[in-house]
UniProtKB/TrEMBL annotation:
Upper classification of the organism: Bacteria, Pseudomonadati, Pseudomonadota, Gammaproteobacteria, Pseudomonadales
Transmembrane intervals: 82-99, 111-128, 134-156, 176-195, 249-270, 277-298, 304-324
Domain of life (superkingdom): Bacteria
Membrane topology: Multi-pass membrane protein
UniProt protein name: COX15/CtaA family protein
Annotated source species: Geopseudomonas aromaticivorans
Keywords: Cell membrane, Disulfide bond, Heme biosynthesis, Iron, Membrane, Metal-binding, Oxidoreductase, Transmembrane, Transmembrane helix
Pathway where it operates: Porphyrin-containing compound metabolism
Pfam families, per database record: COX15-CtaA
Subcellular location: Membrane
Length: 350
C-alpha cells in the first residue's frame, strides 16, 4: 500500500527546509562577526533595514554612538532576522491548522503547539543575543534552540508523511541505544556552540595534539563557568588561552565519544537489517568529523565552518530519523490485516 501523506505535510516540509536555511544564516552571521551588526532589536538602528542615506546614518550615529554602522554586517544580521520571522509565521500557520483539525485522525496537535512556543522563545533569545552583547550562554542556547526547532519540524514532517514505519519488532536495547546516541549528539552540538561562542576554534591549531602536547595547560573551571559575566561586549571572546583550550579539548574528546557510540549504533543497525539507516549514519558521522578536523587544520575557513554547522544539523536529523523509525508512535492500519497498536507491537485484526 502506498503511503498517503496527511494534510499539512508539504507545509511542514517547507518549514523544515526554511529552518535549515535560518540555522545556516545564523551560523553565517556568527562566523562573519555580525552578531552585533544591528545594536538594537527587532529593528536595525531603529529602521526596518540597515541605515543607508545620510539622514538615516546621522540618526544612527546620534542614537548609537558606540556602534558605528557597518552595512555588510547589518545586512547579514537583518537577513537572518527576516528569514527567522518568516519561519515563525509558517510555524504559526502549522499550529493554527493543527488546532483547527483538533488532533482528529491521528493528526499531531501537541507537536505544532510546542513548535510555536519554541519559536517564540527563540525570538526572545535572538533579542538577548543582541542586548546581552553576544553573552556565550545566550548565543549557545540560541544555537541549540535553532537545532531543536529544525529537528521538531523534521519530526512533524515525518509524522505527517504517512510513511509506514518498519513492521519487524525492534529490540528495546536498540531503541535505548538510539535514544542515548541522540542525547549524546545534542550534547556534542551544545559543546560545539560553546566552542564557537567563546571563540575557541583556534585555541589549538595542531591535531591530534594541542600546542604540541597531548594534554596542554587547561582551565576547565573558567572555560565552563556557566554563570560568568565578563563583558560588556563579548565579540571576539573574553576568556584567556587556557580556558579556551579546555573548551576546545572538550569538544574534541566529545567527538571521540560520539564517534564510538555512533559506530556501535551503526553496527547494531546493520545486525538488525537496517543497512540504509546505518549507511546514512556512517556517512553523516564521517563528513562531520572530517569537517571538524579541517576546521582545525585550515584555521577555520568560513566555508568549512559553515559546512561543519550544516553537518551537525544533518547528523542530528539522521538520529531523529533513526529514532523515529525504531518507534511506532501512532496506530496505523495496513493491508495485510495487521494493525500496529503500540510501540512496535503487532496485533492481528479482523
Ligand atoms: C562528531 C561530531 C561533531 C559534532 C556533532 C560537532 C558539532 C559542532 C557544532 C554544532 C559546532 C558549532 C558550529 C557553529 O557555531 O556554527 C561545532 C563547532 C566546532 N567544531 Fe565540531 N562537531 C563534531 C566534531 C568535531 C571534530 C572531530 C572537530 C575537530 C577535531 C571539531 C571542531 C570544531 C571546531 C573547531 C568548532 C568551532 C567552529 C566555530 O567557531 O564556528 N568538531 N561543532
Amino acid at each position: 500500500m502506498a503511503p498517503t501523506t496527511r494534510p499539512g505535510y508539504r507545509l511542514a516540509l517547507c518549514a523544515t527546509a526554511l529552518a535549515l536555511l535560518v540555522v545556516m544564516l545564523g551560523a553565517y552571521t556568527r562566523l562573519t562577526h555580525a552578531g552585533l551588526g544591528c545594536p538594537d532589536w527587532p529593528g536595525c538602528y531603529g529602521f526596518i533595514g540597515v541605515p543607508q542615506n545620510e539622514a538615516q546614518l546621522a540618526h544612527a550615529e546620534r542614537h548609537f554612538p558606540e556602534a558605528p554602522v557597518e552595512a555588510q554586517k547589518g545586512w547579514n544580521e537583518m537577513v537572518h532576522r527576516y528569514f527567522a520571522g518568516s519561519l515563525g509565521l509558517l510555524i504559526a500557520v502549522l499550529a493554527a491548522q493543527a488546532i483547527r483539525r483538533g488532533g482528529r485522525d491521528g493528526q499531531p496537535l501537541k507537536l505544532p503547539l510546542a513548535l510555536l512556543a519554541l519559536v517564540l522563545v527563540q525570538a526572545a533569545f535572538g533579542m538577548w543575543t543582541v542586548t546581552l552583547k553576544l553573552w556565550p550562554q545566550v548565543v549557545s542556547a540560541h544555537l541549540l534552540g535553532g537545532f531543536a526547532t529544525l529537528s521538531l519540524l523534521f519530526l512533524l514532517s515525518l509524522r505527517l508523511s504517512g510513511a509506514l514505519p518498519p513492521l519487524a519488532g525492534v529490540l528495546p536495547q536498540l531503541r535505548a541505544l538510539a535514544a542515548l546516541a541522540l542525547v549524546v549528539v545534542i550534547g556534542q552540538i551544545a559543546l560545539g556552540g560553546w566552542v564557537s561562542s567563546n571563540y575557541a576554534a583556534v585555541a589549538c591549531v595542531d591535531l591530534p595534539t594541542c600546542h604540541g602536547e597531548w594534554w596542554p595547560a587547561t582551565d576547565f573551571a573558567n572555560g565552563f563557568h556557566l554563570t560568568q559575566h565578563i563583558g560588556p561586549n563579548y565579540l571576539g571572546g573574553q576568556l584567556d588561552s587556557e580556558a579556551r583550550t579546555a573548551i576546545h579539548l572538550s569538544h574534541r574528546l566529545g567527538a571521540v565519544l560520539v564517534s564510538l557510540l555512533l559506530l556501535v549504533l551503526a553496527v547494531q543497525l546493520l545486525r538488525h537489517g537496517r543497512s540504509r539507516l546505518a549507511g546514512l549514519l556512517l556517512l553523516a558521522l564521517l563528513a562531520q568529523v572530517s569537517l571538524g578536523v579541517a576546521n582545525v587544520l585550515l584555521h577555520l575557513p568560513l566555508a568549512v565552518a559553515l559546512a561543519h554547522n550544516l553537518g551537525g544539523a544533518a547528523l542530528l536529523l539522521v538520529l531523529v530519523l533513526i529514532n523515529y523509525r525504531l518507534r511506532v508512535p501512532v496506530a496505523l492500519k495496513v493491508d495485510s490485516g495487521l494493525r500496529l497498536v503500540a510501540r512496535g507491537s503487532l496485533r492481528r485484526v479482523g
